[in-house]
Amino acid sequence: MDCTVDHYIAGMLLSGVGDALGYRNQLWEFNKSGPAIHQELQELGGLKNISVELPDWPVSDDTVLHLATAEALATGKADKELLHEVAFRYVEGMKDMKGRMPGVSTILGIKQLCPGTEGGYRVPYNSEARGCGAAMRSMCIGLRYHHPDQLSSLVEVAVETGRMTHPHPTGFLGAVASALFTSYAVQRRPIATWGLGLLKEACPIAKTFVKSAGYAVMETESGWDYFTGKWKWYLDLRGLSLGTGPVAWPDQYGPAERDKAYTSFSLSGWGGGCGHDAPMIALDALLGAGSDWEELMSRAGFHGGDSDSTAVIACCCWGVLYGIDGVPQCNYRNLEYRGRLENVAQKLYALSH
Ligand SMILES: [Mg+2]
Q1: Alpha-carbon distances of 251 from 235, 237, 257, 258, 333, rounded to whole Å
Q2: How far does residue 102's CA lie from ligand 1's centre (Å)?
Q3: How far is the centre of ligand 1, averaged over its atoms, from the C-alpha of 25 (Å)?
Q4: What is the structure's pLDDT at 329?
Q5: Residues near 192 by beta carbon (within 8 Å), at least 6 away in sequence
Q6: Could you tell me the pLDDT band of residue 26, with boundaries at 50, 70 and 90?
Q7: How far does residue 309's CA lie from ligand 1's centre (Å)?
Q8: 309 labeled binding residue
Q9: Distance (Å, rounded) from C-alpha 16 to C-alpha 332?
Q10: What are the record keywords, sorted (predicted)?
Q11: Mean pLDDT of the region 192-208
């Protein structure tokens, strides 16, 4: 089925749902193993019985900043004007972080932004900024620039907004991946080709852009290869190096095995904590779950790593692909910021179609 405005709405809305479910008000993100979360989920009556709403299921930093990116894009601004707008909204978003656990690089980066002043959307290079904070808020860039011939705009906006907090390529290339995968979902491109598209189409454009933008070129180039190397490794592991499949899965791949696998994807030991592996786990979940919502959340949102950020990415793509029909109403009916998520989705659809 072609991508409609309802798919945009489902993508934005379900990204927030995935974030809130994976976060569980600080109880699940980073704190519990996949099997322990699945056990608790069963005690709560299963996913279909969870009303995702305040006070128990707030959205986290992911959704606050994803909304900031999306609402800046929805102004229709472009180029530097857009980057100042995004920076302004990130600064505003930090006023709404009570109980939402923003990451270290996000806090530091946004503190250094000076929107409205010359070059004020740039921050000094930070070799530690490899986390998933840029990836988790960039899916909407793929909704705005979804046409194959808009790929360079998608990449440039993802790189520049990503490095407002995550100047290390492992960090900001995560933003490129999230945006790209969402644009592929809009295009109805087969999921088995997404990883190869990232490596062969988007990353080379990002590298050329970094050179032409002339900011932190040497530092960025010297940190480049971890992201692309780990993605090559993952595509080999899953039999997707040629972008065709079939996907190679382990014999056993339940919550316990997935915790181990996701840790092996990671740099730090926390699956999904970085820019390369948050979109990697999201893709792994999309490949495995098909159109099954419960299976998607099981794989993308209920594991022992950075569960809200892997879910926010996976659920956005899943909503764009499959819409909202297969999701129990209680999962999204009273979601915090539902109105803003739906509104901005409609605006992005109108702007880009
Ligand atoms: Mg979070």
Answers
A1: 18, 13, 10, 12, 37
A2: 6
A3: 10
A4: 98
A5: 240, 243, 244, 245, 247, 287
A6: confident
A7: 6
A8: yes
A9: 9
A10: Magnesium, Metal-binding
A11: 98
- Work out the average pLDDT over 9-20: 98
Distance, C-alpha 7 to centroid of its chain? 17
Q: Which residues contact 52 (CB under 8 A, 6 or more apart)?
A: 17, 20, 21, 330, 331, 332, 334, 335
Q: Count CB-CB contacts under 10 A for residue 250.
A: 11
Two tokens, residue 39: 């056990």
The answer to whether 180 and 197 have CB atoms below 8 angstroms apart is: yes
- 60 appears as a binding residue in the annotation: yes
| Residue 275 main-chain phi, psi, to 5 deg | -70, -30
> Quick check: pTM over 0.90?
yes
Tokens 């945006």 correspond to: 179
6 assigned to a ligand binding site: no
Residue 28: what pLDDT?
Answer: 75
Q: What is the mean pLDDT of the chain?
A: 97
Residues near ligand 1 ion, CB 5 Å cutoff = 60-62, 308
- What is the spatial distance between Cα 156 and Cα 134, in angstroms, rounded to a whole number? 13
Rounded to an integer, the average pLDDT of 135-162 is 98
Interhelix angle 203-213/169-187, rounded to 10 degrees, is 130
Region 278-285: mean pLDDT is 98
Distance 237 CA to ligand 1 centre (A): 28
239 Cα–ligand 1 center, Å: 31
What is the separation, in whole angstroms, between the first and last Cα of the chain? Answer: 16
308 annotated as belonging to a binding site for a ligand: yes
Helices (H), the chain: 5-23, 34-43, 61-73, 79-93, 104-112, 139-144, 151-162, 169-187, 194-197, 203-213, 217-222, 225-237, 255-265, 277-289, 293-300, 307-322, 338-352
Distance CA 20, CA 306 (A): 12
